[in-house]
Amino acid sequence: MGTYNNLKYVWKRYGFLLKQLVSRDFKVKYKRSVLGVFWSLLYPLLTMAVMAIVFTNVFKFTTPGVNYLSYLMTGLVMFNYFSEASNLAMSSVVANFSLINKVYMPKYIFPLSKCVFVGINFLLSLIPLYIILFATGTGINVYHLLLPYAFVCLFLFTLGFSLILSSVAVFLRDMFYIYGVVLSLWTYVTPIMYDISIIENPTLSFIFKLNPLYWIVYFVRRIVLYGVVPEINAWLYCGLFAVVFLALGILVFKKTQDKFIYYV
């Protein structure tokens, strides 16, 4: 009850600020754009088309039993949210230092606003995803009602990781360059374009499964592509990674935020 009251108080006091920050991001992103928000629908389709052509015709990737386009798009939508949100959130504190200097506000509001902003685009990107699912004959099933659990886990994990990133970036500006390399590597160790079954080495397969995004993508694909309820370990791992990283992110951010003023 106490936690609920705290959240209610925070929303009442800073909810308007959060809305304004998210609204500002939308205006900046789509300023002078002819297609505007339509890009949120078109971009995933174009990206999927390019990657599908490359991986099906050049590298000859296949996914036995399921349509490859649906397989690729499902993983891509999940990973793109994490990638874009964490990238934007990383620089959010540094970019808003002038605002922090002028008026008091909780600094976590900046990485949070980026995760929410990209989250709205993520919800819009589900439209082209479902277009692909219907176009390829994959369709939908009643278990799609379980997908919000994976989406919440993805958001909480991303927020926690973003809080850590935004804290580190204040003290280490090289992180802006390092993280680009990390994301590129992360893309390949997450089974987005390929099925993890192609990894025959048990040790390597185990290492790949330590990746939180593996479990979130796996959870979604079990529902979307195979029409089954994910195994209990998938539920547990998704929830565990989300809660652990969120708690770790809050702890790191809280411990370091008072020192931001000396480094930004």
Overview of this protein structure:
The protein has helices spanning 2-29, 38-58, 68-90, 92-95, 97-102, 109-135, 147-171, 175-189, 202-208, 212-224, 232-256. It is an all-alpha fold. It has one domain.
Give the helix/strand layout.
Blueprint: H1 2-29, H2 38-58, H3 68-90, H4 92-95, H5 97-102, H6 109-135, H7 147-171, H8 175-189, H9 202-208, H10 212-224, H11 232-256
| Backbone shape | globular
Instruction: Estimate the strand proportion.
Output: under 5%
- Terminal CA distance: 37 Å
Structural class: mainly alpha
Query: Uncertain regions: pLDDT < 50 for 5+ in a row?
Result: none
Summarize this entry quickly.
By secondary structure, the chain is an all-alpha fold.
Task: Give me some keywords for this one.
mainly alpha, 73% helix, globular
